[in-house]
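Entry 12.
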Amino acid sequence: MSVTTERVASLVAPLIEDLNADIYDVEQAGGTLRVLLDRPGGVDLELLAEATRRISRALDESDPVSGSYRLEVSSPGLERKLRTADHFRRAVGQRITVKTRQGIDGERRFTGLLESAEGAIATVVLDDGEKRVIDVADVDSARMIFEWGPTPKTGGPKKSADSAHRTKPQNEATS
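Predicted 3D structure (tokens):
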């Protein structure tokens, strides 16, 4: 985090704690100041609306950001970025995709289950069962992967039970 985003995070943290939420991340890109919130059970619009009012008021009073900016208060989303050791710790047990910095041995891009994250070291079990141990400082980018439900079954559509029991009608002979 930059000095500005650290100042914003320390100013905002107590305001968000009162809402039973915490700061996932604070980002400043161009003219946008983004405060990402999280809480057990997820973030809803009511939380975001109240948090936005509180954060906006506090930023206006203390003015920790130089120049003009647009404030965005949001959730980190389902496929949230993993930038810090804390982000990795929160994502243990989830599928993630990682791209490491150049100069790191082995494949730079990989996907798998985040098995553990202790301190700045994370262990990812790749799809082939191999384990990769990475230092969070060596990560160029990483994010969680949201899977949209069960994988479709192969073999095409099933016939309905009704059509499986139908037989061709037989003509009855009349005399």
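Annotation: The CA atoms of residues 95 and 150 lie 15 Å apart. Helices lie at 3-17, 45-62, 85-90, 161-164.
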